[in-house]
Amino acid sequence: QVQLVESGGGLVQAGGSLRLSCVASGRTFNINAMGWFRQAPGKEREFVAAINWIGGRTYVDSVKGRFTISRDNAKDTQYLQMNSLKPEDTAVYYCYAGPPSRRYWGQGTQVTVSS
Questions:
Q1: What ranges in the chain are assigned the alpha helix state H?
Q2: Alpha carbon distance 3, 113 (integer Å)
Q3: Measured distance between the N- and C-terminal CA atoms of the chain, rounded to whole angstroms
Q4: Cα 114 to chain center, whole Å?
Q5: Which of 18, 23, 57, 108 is most enclosed, with most CB atoms within 10 A?
Q6: Coil, strand, or helix at residue 58?
Q7: What radius of gyration do the chain's Cα atoms show?
Q8: pLDDT digits (tens, 9 = 90+) for 37-94
């Protein structure tokens, strides 16, 4: 089992920045895929960003150029640096670890961007 704990969410004005962290514990060896989804009120959960063991990154188009995903394998931690935040980025952000067939999730952290 893998446990994930997120932190770093909060309230920020449009144009501001936040940095989310997600610490993994438990059987964390050989975790390749890590990333983030988000879910806004009344909407389905959507993919935001992913990173693999060697640092390959993918992003949803709406956050490209504004968000940066990174990871520190020695600390079993991943990060999501969010800049130039927009009100439409408001959502609960969930980190994950593992492939779709065996994916672990964090509890979620609220990000609210005011206009």
A1: none
A2: 28
A3: 40
A4: 20
A5: 18
A6: strand
A7: 13
A8: 999 999 999 999 999 989 899 999 999 999 999 999 999 999 999 999 999 999 999 9
